[in-house]
Design goal:
elongated, about 55% helix, about 15% strand, alpha+beta, 9 helices
């Protein structure tokens, strides 16, 4: 096997050893105050190349089997949570992991959870009108809405593309409109450069 290919995409400071990955998973779940779904956990470890995917799946399986983490299921989803055994291991052995890596995995997790929480307050809907569609976007907040606007689309295809992009980039959308509103050209330029359109999940 070509191990360079096997570990391709991993950050130079990322982990390849299953034991270290297990410690990092336990550390993350002991630090974050809420259980994480399989998709959330996978995103956190894979999006920044923190670990090798195959070693990660083995580590997760072994943690479940050893009782360091537990799986809870409901009608809507599955979550992973730390157990007292996993918590003890995380506290005793976390110092063997690089501080930069521990901080990074927590940072990615908090960023994801913050984004998901904001998305709960986002409503994007389509309304058919005589000459096309109206795309309505609303970001709710405590009290007045943070953002509330309607845009016209010529046809259903264009309307669905707009809806998808508004849903995927809500935070970027708000910050870009704010930058234009207050005349912050530098921020607007940086935000525009960060936009990466996606037509599918």
């Amino acid at each position: 096997m070509d191990f360079n290919e096997y570990f391709a995409g991993i950050d130079p400071n990322g982990l390849k050893d299953t034991y270290d990955i297990k410690l990092l998973i336990c550390y993350l779940l002991s630090t974050i105050t809420e259980p994480l779904s399989p998709d959330q956990l996978n995103y956190i470890f894979q999006s920044e190349g923190l670990v090798n995917y195959f070693s990660y799946t083995v580590a997760l399986k072994e943690l479940l089997e050893s009782g360091h983490i537990k799986e809870t299921k409901s009608e809507s989803d599955t979550k992973y949570a730390i157990t007292p055994l996993g918590l003890d291991s995380a506290h005793k052995l976390q110092s063997s992991l690089p501080r930069s890596l521990r901080d990074k995995v927590v940072s990615v997790a908090l960023s994801l959870l913050t984004r998901l929480e904001r998305q709960k307050n986002v409503e994007v809907s389509l309304k058919k009108v005589e000459d096309g569609y109206l795309v309505q976007c609303r970001i709710a907040d405590v009290g007045s809405d943070l953002l509330n606007f309607t845009m016209y689309a010529n046809n259903e295809t264009q309307a669905n593309i707009m809806k998808l992009h508004f849903e995927q980039h809500t935070d970027l959308l708000y910050r870009t409109i704010l930058a234009i509103g207050i005349g912050d050209k530098k921020a607007f330029s940086e935000l525009l450069g960060a936009f990466e359109p996606k037509l599918s999940e």
